[in-house]
Design goal:
The complex is a heterodimer of chains A (125) and B (364).
Chain A lengths: L2 H21 L4 H31 L5 H26 L3 H31 L2
Helix pairs in contact in A: 1-2, 2-3, 3-4
Chain B lengths: L1 H40 L2 H9 L5 H5 L1 H18 L3 H18 L3 H54 L3 H43 L2 H54 L4 H55 L6 H36 L2
Helix pairs in contact in B: 1-6, 2-9, 4-9, 5-6, 5-9, 6-7, 6-9, 6-10, 7-8, 7-10, 8-9, 8-10, 9-10
The chains are: A mainly alpha (125), B mainly alpha (364).
């Protein structure tokens, strides 16, 4: 999907939300979720291409597991922020903050093997 | 009276020749066995490079054209290998990560930054550890080879009645190669790891004191290496001058005694001694030239490899500097500093070995 299509879908979605605000505000949240999901999904192939090119450049010198871990960490950050922003829009700030804490702890646990690797290097000096 | 004189002269000649021939015989035997051992120590690739570039003497190797050709060859092959392009790829990867990271809110961005820093840090850690291990292996081989060549040359010097020079060079060689082996086996790898750890911790926590500590470590190590090189050059120059004066005096006295003490055979014996000294000096010079040639050839490639790595890391840092506040930037700078310290160690050690061979050739 090119940028014109993404922008068109977003503009149509925003108009739809404005119309729905006057007709039935209950539909605003599902439409927003679908719209945000669509935008994120549309950039996924481009993102994948960028990351796979950089991975190809790095060849075998960099551990593939580490790179996978980095994808996971960045994806987690995106998903958590997406969910917490939606929660804030709905006025549920407490859930948003808990979601962010959960996301941070999940990312820390993802990075644990790297920290272990570094610490074992330090211990073996 | 006449008989007594003849017997005395005979005993004197017998004594002078027998002592020298016995001493020289043992020295030659030692020299021969050392030379045989030496050829087994020369790495095949060094001999290959020497033959490939048709380098026969130290003048050939140290001529401007050949040094440029050797350096260019080594740099080109290090670039062709392309293993250090990983730093650039890493910069590209971090660049993508940062572009995405900037769109996140502050708290999530910090966590993503932490993940990027850890992945980049671990990758650079592994690469630099590999590079340091390769460096240690190459320089341990160089040390073993140079030590063998130096032993042969010192034996040759000792057999040419230059005892003072041989003693001084022998003790300096022992100290130098001990320091060399100690640096290679004990200092390099822990230094690289400690330095990177301090910097990575500084980058994660943003602690400027840790970053200052790492720059202090770098400056101190470069200062110590420069001081050792300076001290070594000074001691070597002074000691070799003194010992050469002693040896020249001893040789002249010996020749004087022989030429004036022996009425008929004095001139012949003195000339024979001169011929012997000249032949041993020729042998010593040849071995010294081989030492310098091999040291230059063996050192050029690691130096070029480190230089290529340094250039690529500098370029990576330059690319990363476009983004303010990237934690990995500081860490990459520290990796570049590690390479600069390794480069400094490599250059100093190579210069010290070349200086030793230079003084071996210079001994009269």
């Amino acid at each position: 999907m090119n940028i014109i299509s993404i922008v068109s879908v977003s503009v149509i979605g925003v108009f739809l939300v404005i119309l729905l605000r006057e007709v039935n505000s209950g539909y605003i949240l599902p439409v927003s979720i679908v719209l945000c999901g669509l935008i994120l999904l549309s950039i996924y192939p481009l993102l994948y291409e960028l990351f796979s090119y950089s991975r190809e450049l790095m060849g075998i010198s960099v551990n593939a597991e580490d790179i996978k871990l980095l994808y996971k960490a960045i994806a987690t950050a995106f998903i958590v922020q997406y969910a917490s922003d939606l929660s804030r829009e709905c006025g549920v700030d407490s859930v948003a903050s808990k979601l962010e804490i959960a996301g941070k702890i999940y990312m820390l646990s993802l990075c644990l093997p790297l920290v272990k690797n570094l610490l074992s290097t330090v211990i073996n000096i | 009276m006449k008989r007594c004189l003849i017997v005395s002269v005979f005993l004197f000649v017998f004594f002078v020749f027998s002592v020298h021939s016995l001493a020289d015989n043992s020295a030659y035997l030692e020299l021969e066995s050392n030379l045989q051992n030496l050829y087994t120590e020369i790495p095949d690739d060094v001999l290959g490079i020497i033959e490939k570039n048709e380098l026969n003497s130290v003048d050939d190797v140290l001529s401007f054209d050949n040094v440029i050709v050797l350096l260019a060859d080594s740099i080109a092959s290090a670039f062709v290998k392309g293993k250090y392009s990983v730093f650039l790829s890493l910069a590209f990867f971090v660049f993508i990560g940062e572009v995405i990271n900037r769109s996140l809110n502050a708290s999530m961005s910090k966590m993503a930054d932490f993940a990027i820093l850890l992945v980049g840090g671990v990758s650079v850690f592994e690469l630099l550890n590999g590079l340091s291990a390769a460096f240690i292996e190459k320089y341990t081989n160089l040390s073993a080879f140079a030590s063998s060549v130096a032993t042969v040359s010192i034996t040759a010097i000792a057999s040419s009645a230059s005892g003072a020079s041989a003693t001084v060079l022998g003790s300096i060689c022992t100290v130098l190669f001990s320091i060399f082996n100690y640096i290679c086996s004990t200092v390099v790898l822990p230094f690289v790891n400690i330095y990177l750890c301090v910097n990575l911790s500084g980058a994660i926590t943003g602690d400027f004191n840790l970053q200052r500590m790492s720059s202090f470590l770098r400056n101190t190590s470069i200062g110590i290496i420069s001081f050792v090189l300076f001290l070594f050059s000074c001691i070597m120059s002074v000691q070799s001058s003194i010992s050469m004066t002693q040896d020249t005096l001893m040789k002249k006295t010996l020749k004087q005694i022989l030429s004036s003490g022996l009425p008929v055979l004095g001139g012949t014996v003195s000339d024979g001694l001169d011929t012997f000294f000249t032949s041993v000096t020729g042998l010593k010079n040849s071995v010294g030239v081989l030492g310098i040639t091999s040291t230059v050839v063996m050192s050029v490639y690691p130096i070029a490899e480190l230089f290529v790595c340094f250039v690529i890391l500098s370029f990576t840092c330059f690319l990363l500097s476009f983004f303010e506040g990237i934690s990995l930037y500081g860490f990459m700078m520290s990796a570049r500093d590690v390479i600069s310290v390794l480069l400094c160690i490599t250059l100093s050690l190579s210069i010290m070995i070349v200086l030793i061979f230079y003084f071996i050739i210079k001994v009269v």
